[in-house]
């Protein structure tokens, strides 16, 4: 067969239209094979072989090239943001106050409604703690006995004061009599001293006359006796004067002692009355107690209604304090609680992207905030606010299923850029206690830097 083909090719004339001239004689001379083989391959009667390239192949190649360029551009221009996902809730920036019941009982009256503004000292609730006994309501019976006891003390105080007035009047009267008697005694002493002086002058005259022989010695002796009697009279009157002075001093001291005794008695009675008043107030508090607002603000939530039973220290309402003592309420902020494993790169000033659970972010978008404060130490579960602890721990457990429920959490305070959210074209104000998830934007770098990070780290060693 091959012999026939070779003869056919050899017998073909070079002038034949079907024969093709040699295109590459140099290649024919340099070939490794025989000359006949080269000529057989060079003189192909059907012409040179050309491969057809359809348009679809070019399109695919262009598309692949465009995709490759886009990938390279994305790698060199695109960025990767590292985020930390945590949970939290909205709370007033100035905190919130829990209004609690002081004693167990029945909530009898509520003086406020939710959203109402109150001032410091305003009555919020009235709790009834009445107890019934066989003879009636116990606190009422105790109040009657305490009232009788107080009336008795008041009557005793009035009696002691009346007795003191009578005694003081008697002493004052005796002092007046003594003063009058002392005045008369002074006059009597003056007369007695005058008589004694006259008797002394008369005795001197009698002694002179006796010396001249005009009077007898008996007469002179009689004058001496009269002088002695008058001296004794003056001494008796002086002693009586001293006794009156002593009586005056005793009455004055008795008057002062009576006043001091009255003061002591009145003080004891007043202490007893104060003790009774305290017992009356305590008994009244056992019957009903008023719960007042500790400071100005707005009542956010009322958890109990009149007629419901409450326990001691049980929360009745939540009060949002007013801003700086004014009537305006503190704006809301977001408080995030994060475990220690995500706190390595968290810093103040970082941007926070917030997703409220009440408003799905797929429809209402992400809300922005900025970190303004980070707690220096973590909060143990027991240190969290009592009315928020269960919600905070539950949200933290949901955001990190592998975490420990007893793990301490850091508090991150976030200032909101807006106090409302657009809901179908209407600005809906945010409310305290709304739960949320947040992404803390920590680091932003290009994709090629992220890919080359291991190489760069190895080069720096």
UniProtKB/TrEMBL annotation:
Residues 11-22 have a biased composition (Low complexity). Residues 1-23 are annotated as: Disordered. Keywords: Coiled coil, Membrane, Transmembrane, Transmembrane helix. Residues 1-10 have a biased composition (Polar residues). It comes from the Bacteria. Residues 175-202 form a coiled coil. The keyword Disulfide bond does not apply. The chain crosses the membrane at residues 55-77. PANTHER family: EXPORTED PROTEIN, MEMBRANE FUSION SUBUNIT OF EMRAB-TOLC MULTIDRUG EFFLUX PUMP. This is HlyD family efflux transporter periplasmic adaptor subunit. The lineage of its organism: Bacteria, Pseudomonadati, Pseudomonadota, Betaproteobacteria, Burkholderiales.
